[in-house]
Each structure stands twice: as structure tokens, then as C-alpha cells.
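Sequence in, structure out. Go.
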Amino acid sequence: MLAGGSGGLGSAVCELLSAEGARLVVSYRANRERAERLRDRAQIIQADLAIEADRRRLLDGAKELYGLVVFAGDPARVPPGADPRDAMLRSHEVNYLGPILLAREAAERMKASGTPGAIVLLGTMQAAALFTGSTAYAAQKAALMHAARILAKECRGTANIRVNVVSPGVMAAGMAEASIARGKYERFLTDGVIPRYGRAEDVARAVRFLLEPDSYVTGQVLGVDGGMGL
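Output:
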């Protein structure tokens, strides 16, 4: 299941996994037209992860739930001088609360069915690095990453449910596309911090690795950032 997986990063994961024969469910919150482009590779379900009934309907849509990847996110950008309260509240719902509740509920279903499963959540480099103006977004992603590791500890051992985080850097896909177009991250190339901007396929391969059956990896944050975290 790819929750909130109709965007650039989710579409790349959908393409990679469907090519290997995976039966996929992809959810979207508002952009139905974009989600419909994946109709030939996945079952499409509309769901707002902050709403309990939507999360239940989404999980019910998966006949067998082995893997969950949560892409849902909101950049929560606040214009200079604007009141950040509304953006921070929405960021809490989209970037932390909905994804973590869905992950916990999916883990409970895996436990109940005796399924050794894998859960992957999407973090961000901004949860570790300090970017001015990113308080509303980055703080909630940092909380998500910490909560994911707690969930991994709760699910280890006999439950055999693995929980990990993929933390992308500057990706030429998804929410970072607009910032790249404005030249916001150009300095990282000119200063040699990263060799290139990341591609959606880089994230897709990392997600696939963490979904592999009988994996020995859990409770980890995998940075896919070209070395920016260094």
C-alpha cells in the first residue's frame, strides 16, 4: 500500500513495484486526476489520513497487507510575516498525525493476521538540518521520524514487523521541484555538497530495499541525499 503515493516519489515507487508484480493500493487526498494516471498499475482510493474513517477504509481496501509506505506530506510554507498557526496545525495533521496513526493501525492489523510486514515512512533532510523558514514542516517530520523508531521498537521480535524511514534530500521530484526551479538549492551543486539533484528513482530503490521480505533492517533512518547529511 502506498498512502499518499500519487505524487512524483510515490509514482516512481509504484512503477518499480508494479513491474515486479506487486499488487498495489495507492491513496490520494485531493488530486484525483494525478492519481488516476496510476489506475493501470494499482487500485486507487481517496483518503485523508487525518480522518479515522478514511484510514479504516483505506486499510480495508487491501485484501492482504504486507507493506505500507506513507508518502503523505505538506510543505507547510509560511510567507514572511504571516501568522504560521494554520500552517502548523495542518502540518501536524498531514506530516505527523495521519501518517503515524495509519502506521500504528497497519501494524496492529499485521499483528492480528500474523503477517511479517514492513512499514516505511518518508522523512526529510530538513528534519535533521536547520533550514530557516521550515519550522512548520521540519518539526513535524522530525517528530514523525522519532515516532517511527519508537514504533519499530514496539513491533520488533515476535511480531516481526519492521518500521523504517527514508529521508530524501534535494529531489528533482515532489515538493522540492518548485524550490529547485527557483534556484534555492543551486549552491549545493556549485559548492560540491552533492553531485546532482536526487531523482525519484533513488527513493524508489531505497523503499524497495526496506520492503524486501525477511529483511534484517528495522528502526533505521536511511538518508537518500547524495551526502548532504555529511
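Check: The CA atoms of residues 202 and 224 lie 7 Å apart. The two ends are 32 Å apart (CA to CA).
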